[in-house]
Structure formats: C-alpha cells, structure tokens
Prior knowledge:
- The chain has 29 helices and 30 strands.
- By secondary structure, it is an alpha+beta fold.
- The longest helix is centred in the last third of the chain and has 30 residues, at 626-655.
Amino acid sequence: MNKVIKIILGILVILIPAVLVLGLLFKGLTKKSFYPDHGEIKTEGISSNVKIYNDDYGVPHILAANENDMYFTLGYMHARDRLWQMDILRRAAEGRLSEILGSSVLDFDKFFRTVGINKTAYKLYENSSPKSKEILTAYTNGVNRFMEEHMSELPVEFDALNYQPAQWKPEHSLMIGRLMGWELNIGWYTDYVFGEIINKVGIEKTSDIFPDTSVTLFKRVKIEIDTLQDSTSEEISVKNMSSLKDISSLGKNFYNINESYREFFGINNSHSGSNSWVISGSKSESGKPILANDPHLAYQAPSKWYEVQMKAGNTFDITGMTLPGVPAIIIGHNKSIAWGLTNLMNDDNDFVILDKDSTDNTKYRFKNQTIKLDSITERIPVKDSVEVEYIVRYTPIGPVISDLPKHSLITDKNNENIYKDKLLTFRWTGYEITDDINTFYSLNNAKNWDEFKNALRNFCCPAQNFMYADTAGNIGYHAAGKVPVRKSDIYDGRFYPSDVENEWTGFVDFDKLPNLFNPQEGYIITANTNPWTWLKTESNDKFYISYYWESSSRFDRINDMLKSSTKFNTEEFKLIQMNTQSVYAQNISKFLLDAYKDSKNIDPVVYSALEKFRKWDGDMHHNEPEGALFNVFFVYFIKNIYNDELGDDVFKDYLSIGILPYNSTIRLLNSKIEESQLWFDNINTTPIETKEEIIRKSFNEAIDYLRKRFNTDDIGAWRWGELHTIKFNHILGSVAALDKTFNIGTFETGGDQTTVNCSEYNFYDAYKNGKFDIKLGPSMRIITDMADVSHSLSVNTTGQSGQPLHDNYSDQSRMWLYGEYKKMVMDEIEMVNKRYKLLTLVPK
Length: 844
C-alpha cells in the first residue's frame, strides 16, 4: 500500500473517533438547554397559575390571570428561547461586546458608547409612566427568574464563549428598541454619501443623480440663500463644498466603524424596505378587511421576530410578533383590530459642524457663545486584556462623533490643520425621551381607529407607516414618529450639514402626519414610497419628510393586483406576498431593447437574450434565466455609469444604500440627453459615450459573465436561483466547523430588491465578487382576515427557538421559502383539541 495512503488512513483512524466524540459532546452541550415545553414548573414572581400552550412550531400561547403574570411569563419565554440573542443585542447597544469577544470588537463598543443608546435608555426608563415601569419590571423579573433557574443549563453560545449572562435590567429592553431604530436609520448614510459624491464630482453633476424631489430644491436653495444673505450662487456653492468636505472627512470614522459593525452582525444591506396593504370588505370574499404585512430586515439566525399570544383575564388578548428582549407585540392583532408596519423613511437625523474655540480645545462656539464640552469617561472591559478608558464628549445637540479613533479620522498629515478646529456632532430622534412601552401597550389594547391613533401619538423612532384594519369593517393608515421641523428651509434637511441656522424647532404634529381612513378605492398600500405621491393632500399641507424613498416598483406591482375587481381572500394574499414580478425591471428593459433596435451583426447569444426580454413580463423566477440576465446586466450598468466618476471607494459607499442607484439610474435614463450625458460618458476614454453605448457595453459584459459562470451558451441553463441564494447566518456560524450547526440554508430563490417578494443582494459584492447572495427581505409574513381573527396566518424566516439543533430552530425556513403559512390560533378550546403541549407555571 502506498505509504502516503497508510499515513492518511492512520490519521483518520485517530481523528474519526475524536470527531465523533466531539460531535456528541457538542450535541450534549447544545441539548442541555432544551427546556421542558410541557409539565409543571414552580417558580417565584407570579401570583396565579399561568398556562403556556406550545404549538408544534414552539409558539407559546400565554394564558394568565393578570397582566403582571402575563408580562413575567413573556420575559420567561423570551429567555427560554432567545437568551443569547437578547444578551448579544443588549451588549451591542451598551457597548459591551469586547467583554466577551475581545479587543477585535473594541471599536464597536467605542462607537455605541459614543452614540449613547445605553445612556438614552436610562433616561427613557426614568421618564416612563408607572404602567410602563410596571410592565418592564414584570418582564425583567421573568427573564431573571428563568436565568436563575437555569444558570447551569445555558445555551451553547455561552459555553462556547465561556461566560454567564448578567442580570437583565428594564433599561436593556429599551436599549434593544432604540437599537432597532438605529439599524433602520439611513438618513445619515445618505447625507454622508452625497457629501462624498459632491466632494468628488461637484454639486451640479451630483444634482443629476440626486433623488427626484431635489430638482427644484437645488435651484430653490440657491435663490433663497441669495435672497437671505445677499450672496452669489458661486459663493454659496463654495461654502457648501467646504462644509461637505468637513462632513465627509470628519465623519469617515463614524461611517466606517458602523459599516464594520453591520458586516459583523450580518446586517450590511440597504437597511430599508417592507410591504403592507389592507383591503376593505368591499374587496374581500369574507366581507371584512384583510391586512398583510412583511417587514424587510436583514436575514439572520435566529430570526429577529418571536411569535407569541398573550392573554390576561378577559380583557387582554393579543397575538403577533415581538422582538426578543422587548415586552410588547410590535406587529399583530387583538380581537378587534390588526396593524402592520413599514418604514416611513424619515430623515430623522442631522450632522452639525461646530467650531472649536480658538483658545481652548475643550470649548466650542455655539450661537455666538463659547461653551465647554461635556465629557464622560467610559470604562470598557475587554476579554483577556485590561479595561480600556475612552472619553466621550457631548454638546446640547448630541455626541461628538469626530472623536472616534479608528479608520484614520485624520491620518493624512496634509489634512490635520484643516480639521483640527472642527467638531462633528450628530442629532437623532432616537435621543428624544418618549414612553415607548406605553405606546405599544396602548396599541396592543386599542379597540378602534381613535384608540389606535391615540396610542401612536407619542411614538418615536424609527418613524413608521402604521396600517390598520378592524372587525367593524374600517381600514386606515397613519404615519407615526418624530418628524423634525427645521428652523430654516435653506437646506431642507438634505445632505448639507446643519448649522445653528437650521436647528430643529420641534416635530410635526401627529395629526398632520400622512394618514388615510376608509378610502373610496377600498384599499391602501405602503411600500416605503413617498406618501405625498399617492395621498390626495393639498400642497400647502405637505412638508419635508425625506429625500430617500424606495423605488415605486413594489408599490406599483401590488397596486396592479389590488385595483382589479377581484374579490380577494387570504390565499390570494399569499400569492401577492410571494410575487416576483418587477415593474422596475420591465421599465429598464425598454431602454435595453431600444439601445439595440438599430444594431446589426449581433452575437447570436446576445440576440437570444434580447428575445427573452421582448417576451418578458418582469417575473424573476428562480428557475428561469431572465432574473439572472437582468440583474447581472444592471450591476454592470451601474458600474459603467458611476464607477469611473466616483472611484471605487465612493462607489462602494454609494452602493451600500440600494435605493440610491435604483432611483438615480431610472432618472438618468428618463432625463434629457444634456442632463445625463456627463454620467453615461466614461471619463477615462477619449470618445464621449452615449447612453445606448453604455447599455450595450453593459449587456455584452453581462452575457460574457454568464457564459463563463455557467460554462454554456445555453441561456435556458442560466438559472437565477443558482446565483441568487439565501443563507440565515448565526454570528458563531462564521467558524467553518460550526457552519452546518448554526447556519440555516443555503436556499435558492427568485425576485430582487424591486419585487414584492423582496430579495436584496449587495450591489458592490455582486460587482466586485460576483456574489448575488441575499442579505435582506421579508423577515416574517403575516395575513389577517378580520372575519376570522382567531386564524390569522404567519410564517417566520427560521423558527421560534434560538438554539441550534432544536426542532424549532429552522422548521419554518422551508415554509417561508415556498410561501407556506401556519395558523395563529387564539382560542384555548382549539389548543386543547389540537393537543398543544401545556406547560404550567405555578407560584412557589
């Protein structure tokens, strides 16, 4: 026998038993934290027995005698199924990741200590209503009681990282809520990115790709500034350019560390999206409203959502989706009303540049006054190292974010003198002191439209579109959240950094926020588009909300389906949620076909691909080639339009927010030749390229890529799903040996960012690495027919349990993938008949 083979066999004889032993040991470590889902548990902290019916998917139905016991049990169940997820989220918000993960994540801790979510949470709790404190206390007691009872049986992640969780605090729940607000906040991203672009190509050229709402604003800005300050447009442009250079340089660290954090946690996507629509009884088979919702969030394992039913006596009965760590149902319904959420896309933050005092760097100039900077020394524990001290400085506006030390804030010595006299601060609605728990408690208890609206009056962030339906037959929509009112219209909150002339003077009154009740059309849709484009609102009543809206593609596709005379049922709503037809792609395809209409001697494969587009209805089915053809073409197209002007670094930042290239590209295609030509032309070549030439170049490059990728000229073999896959990743799943245990997938799917069944990939990753892996999409789906609220439909991306190898860790993934749903049962007699497992908590 070959000597090498003998050696290999010898090694395998030794290794295989070791691997088996380690595998069994790991399985044992994992399963020790699979807690009972039936039987009886005696515990402290409740006053009466609490029944918990667990269905086959691990969804708990909590039936308590009173609200205190109900919220206690919710905390207990969250801890049972998602304890490590809760712990890692509170650590991220607190800036305490280094304590368990070491110095490699120290910058994340400095970042969030600077942002100050933890400090805000303590203020929120201090100013909460007695009812909110009561809820938070009961919930906290439930979490801590569970930990005390099971500290020797913790989930495997605690063993892997060799630590035990600290006691839960009420403030931790509030931190997780504001952390979600931070994740959905894209306003400062766009401000920063457009600052970079203006520094690169100038304001006039940037205006060609700025969102449509800016066309008149660019002109109006100059006129108003001229009028107010008696300055020339050129002088104003110089002033703005100088400010933007400050913001893109001073804010570089802030941006880069946040991007690294998002990548580490698997949320490096465009941060936005969601669909929700509701129809009245006039359009439903049941004669009652039907409401659908699918919030688009980053894909992770476990899922962001945890489903639960909560009942207290005969007054409180609600079912829906919670965020682990937060004592409230965020999306769901009670026996009277249902609601869904989509992101309003609110511009809820501003950068503010301040001048340091010329004689004292610990002071700054504000409103013609010299003010001393406040500061606090943060002490950050670091695993296997010494504690790190880090100073965070504050102004009345917000924290000083230009102090962040990594990613070379001012490593270029040539720039050191330019920025040493500047401070970059940051204002965000997430710093506002509101009673978030009371908002959702009131919402969970609301019985009609007026109570629904009143519950939302003090909702903070991120601002949302709340969809509404009730059993009385009403449907409605109301935006809610803090929409800033800026003192001056000069900047309109856009990418220009603010100054004291444009400080916030308050927030838009709730009753003036976009809203609609029982429209004549019999349906309402929200899909992250500008509500002023579809609401019948007088122009004088409109105000600035944002400039970064989603493409109307999802909205238009839903509208196309709902405006028919068909009477809809929940089965048809399922099909709408799973629809993969792109209105956006159909619109772009028209320009593609036009670019080739006079072409001769076309490559046969290119010709065959064009024939596909001539017959295409925009459906990006995973098993067909059209989705691959379009998306690969589009990636090359945006590369050929923007990369030569922006350079790779700024281009990457630009692509980090998918709505920007989507909106600017269709705008350039529809623009007059003289307005768009500068972007279509390749500045690195002598000839001036036309729009049609860049389209043909991009499509030819896409064909070449697909030929090589699939190793065939047979277009039918270029399946979109083979390129476009999804995997639900756990943080610890990045370790190769743990991949199959912690991560879920890989699965093929269709659609893209512009389809109702959204499946967003990262443009830059696709351009640079040829990866079309899905990062974001429907984080859960829910459909409620108000004629049968006890049998609403839902599905999660992964499962209820956060524990790998548990039966409920990934049991909903394939259901979610194939458009299958489960019933959200609300009646106890049905739970008994279906033989749900009964776990009873008994007072000790």
